[in-house]
Amino acid sequence: MPYVILRDDDTNVLTPPECLERLYRPFLDAGLPVNLATIPAVSTDAKRPDGLPEGFLWRHPSNNKRLPLEKEQMLVQYLRANPGFHVVQHGHHHDPFEFDRTDRNEIMQRLEAGRALLQNAGFQRPETFVAPHDKFSRIGYREVARRYQVISTGWFELRRLPRAWWPKYAMAKALGHPHWRVNGTMLLSHPGCLLSYMRPYDTMLETIKAQIQRRKLTVLVTHWWEYFRDRQPDDQFIAVLHSLADYLRSTKDVKVISFAELVTSKIPLN
């Protein structure tokens, strides 16, 4: 049976709950878990690698440069009221390449502080980590793997992996496996952002279906803010996402799971 993990990136304290409600109500009503890669303390001046402002920066309720999640905020209350959402850790501030660095102490501080902020907001201790822009240094990989049971990323580069991991990575590559394990940590790749406004809408769903059927486990990645560019809903793109919900709900030989369920189960990775 193919398994699917839906991962939506960049939820943060500035994310309007109504956007997540518009996107994922069909999934929640169908009992399909949605994993939100959540930024613990978003930088209000976060930039993309090309220097442009990040698309997930919507509202600026204060002049603070770092805005953490807190229990009493409307977003947190909404997420906790809808247990179909599963919060995983997405960096710390979402600064560009914040885990593609060589300062071990800085990496450790960001990991621990981010995890603590999510727990202080009332969420369970995150066991899955997503790095901003999928970028890790060797030290970054090593320190994340020491603390988390799942690393979800787009791809793996040999030069960025700890040398001790190279044999297992080489074996995974030789076998054509998109996912692998090292020292008890699952390392999951994804087939690109198949749910993106930069892809053709008319073939998007069929492309996703084909990808799901080719793998035992597929991580589908999307970004909530892409559906509301310029603060306006892209109804056609949202319709594709809801068609995916219909497909996943009605297809009995495909099962949608959370990262947490993957950790506690014996579901095969490949």
Notable traits:
single chain, 270 residues, alpha/beta, 7-stranded beta/alpha barrel, 9-stranded mixed β-sheet, two-stranded antiparallel ribbon, 8 helices, 35% helix, globular
Task: Walk me through the structure.
The protein is α/β, with parallel strands linked by helices. It has a single domain, classed as 7-stranded beta/alpha barrel. 35% of the residues lie in helices and 18% in strands. It has helices at residues 17-29, 74-81, 104-120, 138-147, 166-175, 201-214, 235-250, 259-264, and strands at 3-11, 34-38, 41-43, 66-68, 85-90, 128-130, 150-152, 179-182, 185-188, 217-223, 255-256. Strands 1, 2, 5, 6, 7, 8, 9, 10 and 11 form a nine-stranded mixed sheet that branches. It has a two-stranded antiparallel sheet with strand order 3-4. Helix 4 (138-147) links the parallel strand 6 (128-130) and strand 7 (150-152). Helix 1 (17-29) packs parallel to helix 7 and helix 3 (104-120) runs parallel beside helix 4 (138-147). The longest helix is centred in the middle third of the chain and has 17 residues, at 104-120. The radius of gyration is 18 Å and the shape is globular. The mean pLDDT is 94.
- Measured by DSSP, the beta-strand proportion falls in 15-25%
Instruction: Categorize the overall geometry.
Output: globular
Q: What CATH architecture do you see?
A: Alpha-Beta Barrel
Report the end-to-end length measured between terminal Cα atoms.
Answer: 11 Å
Low-confidence stretches: none
Instruction: Give a count of the beta strands, DSSP E runs of length 2 or more.
Output: 11
Strand and helix order: EHEEEHEHEHEHEEHEHEH
Whole-number total of structural domains: 1
CATH topology: 7-stranded beta/alpha barrel
Q: Major sheet, described briefly?
A: 9 strands, mixed
